[in-house]
Amino acid sequence: MRSYGETVFAEMTRLAVETESVNLGQGFPDTDGPRSLLEAAIGHILEGVNQYPPGPGRPELCAAVSRYRSREYGIDLDPDTEVYVTVGATAGIAAALLALVERGDEVVVFEPMYDSYAAMISLAGGVRRPVPLRPDPERGAFTFDPDELRAAVGPRTRMVIVNTPHNPTGTVFTADELEIIADLCREHDLIALTDEVYEFLTFDGRPHLPLASLPGMGERTLSVSSVGKIFAVTGWKLGWVTGPEPLVRAVRTVNQFLTFSANGALQLAVADALDTERAWIEAQRASLQDKRDRLAAGLADAGFGVHTCEGTYFLMADIGPLGHDDGVQLALALPREAGVAAVPAQVFYDHQEEGAHLLRFAFCKRDGVLDEAVRRLKAWHRS
Ligand code: PMP
Ligand code: GLN
Fold this sequence. Notes:
single chain; 383 residues; Aspartate Aminotransferase, domain 1; Aspartate Aminotransferase, domain 2; 2 domains; seven-stranded mixed beta sheet; four-stranded antiparallel beta sheet; 13 helices; 43% helix; 16% strand; binds 4'-deoxy-4'-aminopyridoxal-5'-phosphate; binds glutamine
């Protein structure tokens, strides 16, 4: 792990605090989830739900997860054997990779890629096979070249990781894109690990389509979700992995020795909210869509080349139009020079040159915070 150092999110947040910058780096909302959820959590703690819950999760939450996956996506899961509660999506991803990737196995992953994939594939002894996502001139959003994807799959390929809605590009994979991935998985007998933490944050009426809902994919797909993103409580670190019993059992076997179990009082609160807070989830989606538009317009005014964002908390902005070409250097300078923190997209790439000219800005912030960031960036641009 010597090459991994501090995560870019921790580094940029520290720099933002030091310089009193507006922090559009790390992706966390600055308003909390539904009041009823917060109160329920307090209530369960006061009622005495404070000792170890069962390792696989509170039965109430496993049942609620099974219900919402069925309601939203038509995916039927046995709550006892096909749902497993984790300490955030991060622990689910870690346990899945440690459980299923053996030394020398290859893992196909779209880049830019969320930072924990690279680290956990390394810890498992696996080898990354990155497939670049690039802006599609017609659609505006980032997409992959099916030939490049096919070329990345070989005899040692064990798994493909699919993150949709995608951090950091904001792409929401279409049914056609997922079908291409599913075809390869079926043909080469691959396991798919899907990171669906932004499942409820798709914009402009786009649906989120879980890969597991495609024919022949339910039996080979592990899907990961995050309460932090569903209910805007990223500090709660709660999530779940769902999939066929043998794959979930493998995750469970490993996770017994990683975290064993996850906070029980919070699990009970979330179990209720999944059934009762659907309207809050819709309101959050609408609000974030407005915030996306607000920040996109502001960044364009400040001279950035803003890419299309179809979902998530994030906008990708090209620094080329501002006369810059080194995103890492600019991201390190911006807090001091402009009083705004963003994340250099380059750190999400193996082929770093692909992302050198891109910064990722988080728009999951109050409107006044976004406006202040834009005001500062415009002033910096003029100076
Ligand atoms: N995957 C992606 C794509 C993310 O953006 C994040 C950050 N929320 C995670 C996983 C980790 O989620 P959690 O905080 O629930 O561990
Ligand atoms: N998922 C968050 C992001 O992409 C960060 C999570 C973390 O700090 N590890 O900004």
